[in-house]
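hey all, quick one before standup. I had two proteins in the batch that finished overnight and I want to keep them in one place so we stop losing track of which output belongs to which input. First protein below, input sequence then structure tokens straight from the run.
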Amino acid sequence: ATTEIYTLSLHDALPIYVVENEVNSGTGRCDIMLYPKRRDIPGIIIELKKSRARKKLTKLQLEKLAKEALLQIKNQDYIEKLRLKNIDDIFICGIAFWEKNSLSVFEKIES
């Protein structure tokens, strides 16, 4: 349900992106993928990581979890799906959250 909530929150992106969730790509399934409708905007891949810890996570712990999401995007080759559509300008985003606390990290993928 979390992936669907994040996907719905991207409603404003619909004029310039096709938004899909749970996309089979590479050797796994990424949480959210945004395919640009124009060549002048980047493709975006978002991976979500939810902590099941009982105690509140520190900012450093949330950042580590978000960076794990970026590694998952790279290691599972989720980027391949955008490359196959000739999308070379790509940003990846890892979002970690624990209850109401969240932290996001972004990275530009070089062609």
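OK second protein, same deal, sequence then tokens:
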Amino acid sequence: DYCPLPKPVTSQNCNTQACVTYSLSVSKTGNGAGYVTSAPVGIDCGTAGRTDCSETYTSGTSVSLTANYNSATSQFVGWTGACTGTGVCSINMNGNKTVTASFLRKDIEF
């Protein structure tokens, strides 16, 4: 069996005795509307219908998380956990990781 990188691990491409895998878990906080996606594809977490908030990757996989939101109604406050700041979150999967994305609703003036 083989362990291709950087795809998420599935039973079809990884013998559990041959591969070391780690879990990436994402959560969303705040009252703003927003969601998080990943590259490679796997995480799609945050708003209604986007409930894929964890994924398993082979050791050494580089994963990028992106915060997506409507800037007219919400703002991205930043990452906590395995990432900090407000840019793209880049993670090297060398252990189990957790990341939280914070979004706030913008006050709309009439």
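Flagging for whoever picks this up: The mean pLDDT is 87. Strands lie at 21-29, 34-39, 44-45, 51-52, 54-58, 62-69, 74-81, 89-92, 97-105.
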